[in-house]
Amino acid sequence: MAPVRTPRHAMAALVLVAVTACGAPAQVEGGSTSTGGDVAIQQAVPALHTLDFGGQYRFDDGVAVSVSAPKPFKPSNSAYPRSDRAVAFEIIIRNDGDQPYRLSGLSVSATVGDVASKQVVDSTQGYSGIVDAGKDVQPGRDVRVNLAFTAPPEPAEMRLTLRPTATSPVIAVYCGPA
């Protein structure tokens, strides 16, 4: 593979690694190249840590994230966006660090194959997004978030990608059938 030259190319390379390596740990490491300038970009690219649904990942800052197995459901008529099928996840964020964790820093996205899955808001079934995003999770405490995403009619491989902050050096990727 050719060296990564721009941040956009770096992110594309990360997505490619996640798509092709679902179920296997993937990490991006910095190294020397003939152009020299690429090392800084490679070192700035976050590492991917791949887990199965139901697993937990602990980030270096003490924030631990657990993602349940997906729970399929039929969204109500008031759900947005409209979808015939969706899957829900319970995400537990535990702060074992020594500083409060700002929940608004959490980024969660989903893909089925290489197609982005939209987050479903279905308040009648308890899927309202991250409602306490402006709150801090104090050290030693945890918070539970229920999120739902559109899904194809038949179960397929899904990836849920979590990043606790925009500058986190690691992205946790949860994989499995949904």
Core attributes:
13 strands, 178 residues, six-stranded antiparallel sheet, five-stranded mixed sheet, disordered N terminus, mainly beta
How would you describe this structure to a colleague?
This protein has 2 helices and 13 strands, in the order ααβββββββββββββ. Strands 2, 3, 4, 5, 9 and 11 form a 6-stranded antiparallel beta sheet that branches. The protein has about 180 residues and is mainly beta. Helices cover about 10% and strands about 35% of the residues.
Classify the secondary structure makeup into a structural class: mainly beta
Rg value: 17 Å
If you average the pLDDT, what whole number results?
A: 83
> Secondary-structure element order, as H and E?
HHEEEEEEEEEEEEE
Strand % is: 35-45%
Helix content: 10-25%
Which spans of ≥5 residues are poorly predicted at pLDDT below 50?
A: 1-20, 24-36
Apparent shape: globular
* Total of helices: 2
Topology:
Elements: H1 7-20, H2 38-44, E1 47-52, E2 56-58, E3 63-67, E4 71-73, E5 86-95, E6 101-102, E7 107-112, E8 115-117, E9 119-120, E10 136-137, E11 142-150, E12 157-163, E13 170-177
Parallel strand pairs: 1-13
Antiparallel strand pairs: 2-3, 3-5, 4-5, 5-11, 6-10, 7-8, 7-12, 9-11, 12-13
Short summary:
The protein has helices at 7-20, 38-44; strands at 47-52, 56-58, 63-67, 71-73, 86-95, 101-102, 107-112, 115-117, 119-120, 136-137, 142-150, 157-163, 170-177. It is mostly beta strands and 178 residues long.
